[in-house]
Structures are given as C-alpha cells and as structure tokens.
Amino acid sequence: MATTKVRYSQIKTGLPAGGDVNYNDVSLLLLMNGANGSTVFTDSSNSSLSNSFLGVNISTAESKFGGSSAYFDGNGDYLAVASSSGLAFDTADFTFEGWANITTHLNAPKMFTNWNGNPFSTNNWSLHIDHPTNSQKVSFWFYNHSGSSPLLVSTSSISTNTWYHIAVTRSGNTFRLFVNGIEEASATSSASIDGGGSFPVEIGGDSIATDRYLHGYLDGLRITKNVARYTSNFSVPTAAFPAFESKEGKKMVVGSNGNIDLQ
Fold first, then answer.
1. S-S: 204 plus which of 23, 72, 133, 160, CB 3.0-4.6 Å?
2. What is the rounded end-to-end Cα distance, in angstroms, of the chain?
3. Which residues are registered as beta bridge partners of 100?
C-alpha cells in the first residue's frame, strides 16, 4: 500500500499566523480600539471580563498601536474590571504590562491597582506611574510585603508626552520591574498578593484614593496569570498584542472521524 506524505505547509489549519503562545493564560487584554469618544472597552482575552468606567473614553489623538487609546483626564477617571478568579494571583507567577503616555505629572497615578482602602493589613498592590516620593519614577507597591514603601522603583524617570512600555512580573519569589524592556528593579518575596478575586482591578485611578488619577493615555494593557513573560531584558513589542492563540508547538492529530486537529 502506497503512503502519501503531506507537508505541514500544505494543510490549512484555519489559524492565522502569529498569535500568543500564552494566550490561554491571559486574564485581561484591553487593546483600546474604537472610534473617537467611544466608551466601549472590550476585553479581548478568553475571559471577556466586563468593566465599568468613569470619565474614560477612547481617543484617536494618541495611540501606540491601532490608531486609538484610552484617554484619562486626571480628574476622577478610571476603569474598574470585574472581579475574576483569573485576577486572583496568590503566589502564582504573573505579568502586568502595557503602554503609557502621561500628559501631566500628577500625584501617583495608577496604571493598575487592587486597593480596598486597608493597604497595610491586606495583600493589595498598585503599579504607579510618576510617584511623587520617587522622583517621577515607576513604582510597584506590594502592601502585604512592603507596607508604606514600594517594593520596586525604576531607575529612570518618566517624561511627559512619551510612550513607555511598562511591565511587572513575578517568577517564583522574584518580582521584576521593566521600563521599555530594561530590567530596572527586582526584589524577592514569598508572600501572597490579591488581584481581582475579592476586589476589582482598577486602571488609571481607583474609587478609594481619589487624588491619584492618571492624566494621559493607556494602550495595550495585558495581564497574564501563571506566566512571567519577562525575566531579563527583552525587545519591546512592535505590534499590538495578539488576541488569539499561537499554533507554535502544536501537533496535527488525525481523529477517528478523519478530521485533522491541532493539539
């Protein structure tokens, strides 16, 4: 019996090229795409988390990718993402990341935060842009571990009207802060942190600390649970984060019905 060999490239998988090998671990993906003035902020992860907004809108005046971003006017604007098990981190690895472009230096604007008003006895956290006590630097506050001092502080300062890729990762007990792909701070802790399991993750500000809102733009925000995407210096993304799974590393499996699936 003759055997017919078929090249992988000859089979149409139905999946586009590219994608994210860790897409199934993405808990939140806000690409900030839309028409100018829109107030629809779609979560493009598999979680499809709902969110509520106060004063935030889509703007085409600035963007990193896609022609639009989320605009925050610094006067009470924020997004609140619904609580989810995918945002409850405990001691799991994670990656918080996104693009920020601030218009004005204000008092400790927050890129991401999980704050419930009682920071020094709980495991809440905040990723600040432009913290006043740290010379306009990025800082990550992990209250269960570090109390009234930041766990991580960038070495570089943030300028206005400039896009920065900002990321915080946890790999085991090591926390790292990256600005534009450069590791600028690291620290170790075995403590647990919360996320959105008991309180929403808020973006650009929060409902408790009413003086710490962001004035500027955010684009391409992504939270990945169980994966520390960056553990050393890296090249920053040159395109918007993909909103689908990569076929890299998958095998073609012929099922009993004759269909070929990627697994």
1. 72
2. 28
3. 164, 218
